[in-house]
Amino acid sequence: MLQIHFTPEDLARTRFAPGPDPMWELVISLHRIQRRDSSVLFGPWRRQVMPRIPVATGMISALSPPVGYGFDFLTPQTGGSLSAQAEALRATPQWRLRNDFAAHGMLNPRRRLPSWSKDLFDGRSSILTTIADAALAYFAACLEPYWRHICNEVRHDTARRARAMVSGGWSEVFSKLHPSMRWDYPVLSVGYPVDKVMRLEGRGLVLQPSFFCRYGPTSLVDPVFDPVLVYPIEHQPGWALDGTRDQCRSLSALIGRTRSDILRAVADGISTTTDLAVVAGVTHPTASRHLAVLGEAALVISHRHRNTTLHSITDLGTALLNGAQPWLPA
């Protein structure tokens, strides 16, 4: 659990980032490639970009695995373009790298780094330049073709959060930002893989929407960085395909908008009835009824795990979302 402690001054300084952060999206998109999850939402994109991934991108993946500690210096807080962030990567001071290595040793004690990481530990400019160039090459090949759509989706999400702010203040914003969040002033509790306390101490908090982030928010470990909380936006699957809007509208017309939203959320890895109800904007009993209908149609399957019912999508459900012809036994 991540516990973020606010003061009145922190609330006054808390704000949304104006758009997607190139390096955050770059690093987290590599997680989607490494984990091969969220097949409905990111599967088409992953299949398109896999042949184009530059070999040197593996250096970034080695420093930022999808599970465990990722080096904070990979997401410099320049507030500018990818070019500005690449320049910041090249100019990373040695003390910041040493902080990352110390955190890696503490949080990932069993994960060995590649042999070239010694040059990085020593702060050699050549290795930093190689990493920055790898970031630029990966972005150009795998993210740039989709960047306009990514920016539009993030802007739409931010606009929706702004409407929540107008109607109910920060309490309304935090309650809808992610199902794992709980707001009890002065503490915002966030579902997190490790226990951590973040004291803002008058600096405020930057809420950074992310297109490729899934499942739960993430943040930086090193307290020298400005406080930031990266959270997943809500968006439609099939974004990397042509005709996405018509496909989404057709599915909603076929099974209803709420069931369509729930089916997409299940496909994207949201598995509990409570979280699915939050995503769909309905009550728990209503979500349960919709899930029962989807189950009877063999689009989702449900099973009990201790005191919780978990839901997952079937091959037929995935085929329906993708607009494909499923394989059916004779």
From TrEMBL:
Q: Which SUPFAM superfamilies match?
A: Winged helix' DNA-binding domain
> Which Pfam families does the protein's record reference?
HTH_5 (PF01022)
Q: Which InterPro entries match?
A: ArsR-like_HTH, HTH_ArsR_DNA-bd_dom, Metal_resp_trans_reg, WH-like_DNA-bd_sf, WH_DNA-bd_sf
* Domain HTH arsR-type: start-end pairs: 249-325
Q: Which residues cross the membrane?
A: none
Q: Molecular function (GO) terms listed? A: DNA binding; DNA-binding transcription factor activity
Q: Which SMART domains match?
A: HTH_ARSR
What keywords is this UniProt entry annotated with? DNA-binding, Transcription, Transcription regulation
What protein name applies here? Answer: Transcriptional regulator
Query: Which organism encodes this protein?
Result: Streptomyces cinnamoneus (Streptoverticillium cinnamoneum)
Phylogenetic classification of the source organism: Bacteria, Bacillati, Actinomycetota, Actinomycetes, Kitasatosporales
